Amino acid sequence: MSEILLIEPNYKNKYPPLGLMKIAYFHKYIHHDYVRFAKGCLPEEFDNKKWDRVYVTTLFTFEWEETKKSIQYALKVVKDSGKVYIGGIMSTLMPDLFAKEFPTVINNTGLLDRKGTLGLEKEECVDRMPPDYSILDDIKDQYVYPWHDGYFLYMTRGCGMKCQFCAVQTLEPNYVSYISIKDQIAKIDEVAGEKRDLLLMDNNVLRSVEFDRIIDEIKELGFGKGAQFVNPKTGAKCNRYVDFNQGLDAKLMTEHKAARLGEIALRPARIAFDHIEDESYYKKALELCAKNGIKYLSNYILYNGEDFSGKGSQYSADTPADLYNRMKISMDFCDELNEKYGADGRVHIFSFPMKYIPLNALDRTYIGTNWNAKYLRAVQRMLIPTQGKGVSSRSFFEADFGKTVEEFIENLAMPEDLLGLRGHFVEKKNESKAERENRFEVWRINHQRIDEWRRLFRSLSPDERDDFIHLIGGNNFSIDNYAKCKTDTQRILFIYNLSYLSILRNINNFGEAVLDYITVHFNVIYRELLRYLVTSHNVQYSSLKGLLTIKGEQFIKDIVEAYPQYNKEKNNIFSALYKAQTELKKIYLDTRILDIAIRYYEVGAVSNRELNNIFNNFVNGRITHIKKKLMGKIDDFNQKLLEITSGEIGSEVIKQNVEKETNKVYNILQYFGDQR
Fold it and tell me: Strand 198-200 and strand 242-244: pairing?
């Protein structure tokens, strides 16, 4: 008996590694080996263990870094470096890279359906073996796949459409029209128990000349329309579904095939809409599905592409407008279908935009011909609220992407943080009036910023707008890039992309017009800077020097006025202000007395009302009054400190520390003279 380790690199993915699950079954039930599965690497208790064979699966090329880590780990834990085997998508697409980086590793390109790679009996049958679900238990405390408890199988192999952007023609070059899954399901049921859903990974099932036979077998296996699953543990009934997860080719959809699909528990029917040129085929496929009672439809919408050939056609590189229009076409056509077929035939269409990455890309940074980094990041930000469930609601689509192409392009140019702040104010249950009012005020301010940004963006001339989009297209918002702005409006728009800390640090570089905008014309930004400073956990004194130089004493007073309004817990803003002033060698206002006042409040020597009065007196220049107030309560301060620390170990030391703190406060207060 051999000891076998299976490794999937530590990337996130929806589906369990089907290839490794089949290899696990092969070794466990055919060769009777010990099998262990790892996500990335094994737990520490296996650190000193060596394995007879190690298999590493590979997925997408842009997961190269995680894949490298896993192979390096495999080479460390295998007994013989010549017994590390790799396979999967990336290893098939880029065999030369793996041969160069890992010359001792054995690469199985393509499918495990032939002899000679593994050097084991019956290895040519691995691809037709059922997956071993039990290996997933090995990592259940580390990682749970969103889809992990269905039948994961193939009824065809290959595609044959030879789309230039697609890896299938390399991974599965030969089309197989029919693979029976009866025996595989029987074995899965025997070993792992009955599963609810049937997830078929076929790349182009509609091309099969045995399509009717496939549908008949699916029905025979208990997945006809309306099929139900009885939970063996609870006895509860629920619907079961069939999912051709890799999609159905719109060009190959016919009346007959749609009718046959309508006979099984298909949910959803996934139909790609990768190119705007395929609109007529796409809509025809949707129509046929709806006509035959398939109510749940979804689409893959490829964006960020290049010029492509495939399916006997030549496709142009998509544009941002193409992405928007394809999603809108789906929305509009959904409404048409629902109007045509009525409530009983109501359909739901879910759109899934998918960013194109070339087959040889080793990371996710590729930018398509008609796209830029800023736009791509914006799309990803827009999709966050969907949580991977797709876009189906028109109200959400129009609120998130826009009501028009023009609004969509505008949203793509919007600063990322503002993109995430759009939307209506939503009340919460069990929320106090004060909490609601505070949240609403934040929402109101954020929408002021959004509306103002839109006003400024729309005020740009077409040439100014093109220049600005070109400038921000790299998603680089450094001060060097700021210097490339040609107009004041462009400069103001640019700073909306900066963090508050970055604004504070670079404010001396902005110029008079931008400073006036921040502090006077649209002082919402200035007020938000104040809020940021008084609520930050730790204020960097260097970030204060710019506004201190520009606004001097007034800046300090503005912070003091903002502090009781926004701050909920102590931070170091007043000590940072004092240090910044010393760095500038000009003390406008000595803010140390406010730190002392806050310390008094913390121990209970002054009330909240008294503290607010101290802040008001400071702003109005009544420093002597504050000094008198705090000096008069210094004994009380000392006593409160002792009360707080009573009962702690080392009473004498504590008393000494309290005395030191009290003396320090006294000496600082003594320093303050009569200031008006």
Answer: parallel
